[in-house]
Amino acid sequence: MPADASSLRPNPMSWRQMSRGVILCLVLLATACSPDDALARSAPESLSPLVKKVLPAVVNIAVTETVSSGDMLGELPPELRDTPLGREFRRRFGNRREQVAGAGSGFVIDPSGIIVTNNHVVDHADKIVVSLTDGRQLPARVLGRDELTDVAVIKVESPDALPSVTWGDSRSAEVGDWILAAGNPFGLGGSVSVGIISAQGRDLGSGPFDNFLQLDAPINPGNSGGPVFNMDGQVIGVSSVIVSPTGASVGIGFAIPSDTVNRIVTQLLSKGTIDRGWLGVSVEDKENGVTIASLDRNGPAAKAGIKAGDVVIAINGEHIDTSQRLIRAVALVPPGNAIRVTVRRQGREMEFSINVGRRPTEQAG
């Protein structure tokens, strides 16, 4: 029997439901494809425009250092120094002075010829020569350097304005962001590599101000001092350290964040040195917090009444949970200024006003 014709008619309610479903699917599809809410941004089709924009401001730095053989003798293992081999080494090389060459990278931050690099690239240099991408080689002089953050500023003289780059905000950078590293690997000349930020806030134990960006872009010897760019062509880091059993890249490199470098460079350009705050204390991390282990009896903290065994809770109201955070917080205070230090002593909280001193380089906090 043929079906009732009325059973084949579209149900008005069914069409409305279908229409709503189609509209809902389209909305969900559009939302899922929205670039603002996408889970991952695709890599640029080509980095060539970015490279052309920034690479002219990246320089190669060649250094020459005079090393006496006496320094080389210090590298001999102690057990060999008084042996016939050690005596023969001293006889042959004891009075010689050798010229040792090294290479690194840097980048121009001001068209007048101001260049940023690592301190370890230029710290013992007798002669510095900067090679530009246009083939020119210019002598350079050190304007200032800071060993604790491994930052240095050098200057070349050029009759023409040099290509330069600008600072970006490393604090807004996130793990997973694309980056472009530029430099002079193995002294081969200007080169770039690409990768992502793979971690932040890395402490490698190299100093009290460690706060590295970890990168997976290949970084090799000679890249030291080279810039790390975001995809807008802004410098968000300076290549400084690689971790490798072979000395070559194994895919883990570290850069000093631009917010640190920019601040240090500004001070070096204005003063030539970095003045850091100092309390005159040694601190250690314990289960109950950051504990004062010992004090310089003539230091600012001792004079203000701080005692060994006090647990530091806050500085200027900011919570302190590690000794490194304490050292950084104090170091940022210009010497001569007062800070409020809150401590816990025998279960009671106490607050002290301390006039910060000038940090000697050999002191910890």
Fold and architecture overview:
The strands form 4 sheets. A 6-stranded antiparallel barrel has the order 1-2-3-6-5-4. A 6-stranded antiparallel β-barrel has the order 7-8-9-12-11-10. Strands 14, 15, 16, 17, 18 and 19 form a 6-stranded antiparallel sheet that branches. A hairpin with a 7-residue loop joins strand 7 (178-183) and strand 8. It is built from 8 helices and 20 strands. With 365 residues, it is α+β, with helices and mostly antiparallel strands. The protein has 3 domains: 53-156, Trypsin-like serine proteases (Thrombin, subunit H), CATH 2.40.10.10; 170-271, Trypsin-like serine proteases (Thrombin, subunit H), CATH 2.40.10.10; 277-358, Pdz3 Domain (Roll).
Number of domains: 3
Number of E-type strands? 20
Structural class: alpha+beta
Low-pLDDT regions: 1-34
Portion in strands: 35-45%
H-E string: HHEHHEEHEEEEEEEEEHEEEHEEHEEE
Radius of gyration: 29 Å
Helicity range of the residues?
10-25%
Provide a concise account of the structure shown.
This protein is an alpha+beta fold and 365 residues long. The chain has helices at residues 12-32, 48-54, 69-73, 84-93, 119-122, 258-271, 300-304, 323-331, and strands spanning 58-68, 97-110, 114-117, 127-131, 137-146, 151-156, 178-183, 191-202, 212-215, 227-229, 235-242, 253-257, 277-278, 281-286, 289-295, 311-315, 318-319, 338-345, 348-355, 357-358. It folds into 3 domains: 53-156, Trypsin-like serine proteases (Thrombin, subunit H); 170-271, Beta Barrel (Thrombin, subunit H); 277-358, Pdz3 Domain, CATH 2.30.42.10.
